[in-house]
Amino acid sequence: MTQKTLGFGLRLALAVALPSIPAFAKTIDIAIGHQSMCTDTYTAGIVVKELGLLEKNLPKDGDYADVDYNITWADYSSGGPITNQMLANKLNIGVMGDYPLIVNGAKFQETDSLRTLYVAGTGYNLKGSGNAVVVPVESDIYSFDQLKGKSVSTPVGSAAWGMLLKAMQDNGITEEVSLKNQSPAVGAANIAAGKIDAHSDFCPWSEIMEFRGTGRKIYDGSEAGVPYLHGVVVRQDFAEEYPEVVTAFLKAVIEAGNWIQENPSEAVDLMEKWTGVEKEVLYIYFSNGGHLTLDPTIKDGWIEALKFDHTVLVKEKAIPPLDFDEWITEDYIKAAYSDLGMDYEADKAKVVDPETANLGLPVEIWHSRDGILKYETLPEFLKAVAEFQGTGAKLNATYVYDKSTGLKLFGKTAYFVQGEDGSYETFLRKPDAESYAAEVKGHVIDLPTAVAAFIPSE
Amino acid sequence: MVLAPASRLMTASRAVRSRLGLWLMLSVGLAAGYYALLMAALIVRFGTLPNYITFYNWPASVWKIFRSTPSFSDVPPIVAQEYLIEIGYMNYDFGHGISEWALNILPYKVLQVLVLTALLAANIVLLRSKRNCSTGKRLKMGAASGLGAGFVALTSATMSWVVCCATPSWIVGLSMLGLSVSASFWIEPVGPYLSAAGYLILAVTMLVIADPAPEGLPDGRTTGRDHKISSAKGVHA
């Protein structure tokens, strides 16, 4: 009798007490690998991190009602280590450029039991701008074919390396160029010191060198004509266990892109603080008419570009095969679009070609006090620069567009052509400028010379 | 030459046991010296001293990999890439800093290097124990050991030179020495074979040196047959 009473008492006590004992909340670890020195990854990396966009979008009801999230971010200077950390399950999500993405997918598919999924893009340049070949500013090299017999360094395995290989093939100088393996920082330092004939690198290193006045672009990735894109990969086991978390991450990516597009000058100001990359350099990527089109959709053309990149990697680095159908999925990005009430197919169908999209865009002056000032014509722009220089105003940077490709350029690195009729055009490459000058019976000048004509006389 | 590996292994084992302190000191010392040499090579090559060091929780990482990798066959190659220590140079000229070069201490590789130095130390101990061994044979065995050790040492280097997408790899050492990019990549897949060849050379050399008879063991025992061969060659006094 006593035992029965005791048993009943215990059951009653448990029945009363259990609901009041707080359940042990489940913790979901979300570890993301990103690259703060690679502009094209920012919308899935530093911007999401600093604006807390992932936290904002993470599910908090249903199966996730009692969940705690433990979000960690790890910054890398390249995509390779991100893949290794994903293999070790220390990162669930990685953001990287096209060539490292392919290595990521192939390395995972090489294992028996692990896979990643390519779930979204971050941004692209249709023709490959972002990668470029730079020479020391005092070099007498002005076109890619002049690299015959010269030494060119590049971070091997990167998208810039892939572009360089294609450019060498296109120009028929594959055997005549001595290729060296160099990190972006070392390459940039060697360009500044004139220790290497040329350096090929990815975003935003070429523009950093141009902005700092140490390097000059002689070849833009757009000449290779292969899209340059970045994207997001997720461990498949993580994506299958927490699909809503992956969708939340992609919603954050979309919102990061929208935030930049709404106010690029404010965005680059903050991004400079977060990454240490000069805001004037970032502006050339993220502004209206900039190199980077922020677009997370997965277009058919991107898959073709990735397949092309894979053939290059197989040939040059003997990487394993990659089943693209198994690797690429639009499910998560479509779900993110749907949750945000956006039209995925409409965005997927849109392709921005700078050559046409940037036609007629105003040229710009970044005034250190007044911010971004826009001018409809080059004479107005040159007149304004002359006036600002006359008052000693500090100009952070000036931006014009390459007539041949539509690319946004620093005014100080552009070749200006003044036509017979007094009109002006700007070019990225000297041979293009010279050819146009011959066509319009004009002459090629630099920015200071062009501005000099607008300095008010006494 | 009759190899009789079992008896030679016994001989080698006896020689090592008789000079266990020396063998241990050599094994550990050579491994430490190897990593010191790699660090020195990085400092000399890049002209900068290391300015950062990071320690990793290697056991926790291995446990995590073990728990989250469904196929056990996938575990070893992933664990092999795990760091314990990273010592390198951070370049702050761009952004908030980029690790430009680093020496990475990977326990898996340390184990490989310890196997190498243990074999090398065994060969040294064996050669020392054979005081009557001819100079020519000593040189040959020494050269063979050096060759084997060189192969393994070369392919066990874990330096990273932060070229994009590069992770610690033995070909970084070759690239640092100036080998062209294409040649480095061409040679990279050969690494495991080169390493295996190195161990094989070291092991075979050890067995050859551990010939129980001709040059006399530490305890002075010889066999008649080997003695005859040695005498015929006029090696021994």
From TrEMBL, chain A:
Gene3D superfamilies documented for this protein: Periplasmic binding protein-like II
UniProt key word ATP-binding: no
InterPro entries for this protein: SsuA/THI5 (IPR015168)
The keyword Nucleus belongs to this UniProt entry's keyword annotation: no
Residues annotated as domain SsuA/THI5-like: 130-267
SUPFAM superfamilies per record: NosL/MerB-like, Periplasmic binding protein-like II
Pfam families tied to this protein: NMT1
Signal peptide start and end residues: 1-25
Domain of life: Bacteria
Keywords: Signal
Record protein name field: ABC transporter sulfonate/nitrate transport system substrate-binding protein
TrEMBL record, chain B:
Membrane-spanning intervals of the chain: 20-44, 110-129, 141-163, 193-210
Domain of life: Bacteria
Region feature Disordered, mapped onto this chain: 218-237
Keywords recorded for this protein, A-Z: Membrane, Transmembrane, Transmembrane helix
Organism expressing this protein natively: Roseibium aggregatum (strain ATCC 25650 / DSM 13394 / JCM 20685 / NBRC 16684 / NCIMB 2208 / IAM 12614 / B1)
Name under which the protein is recorded: Uncharacterized protein
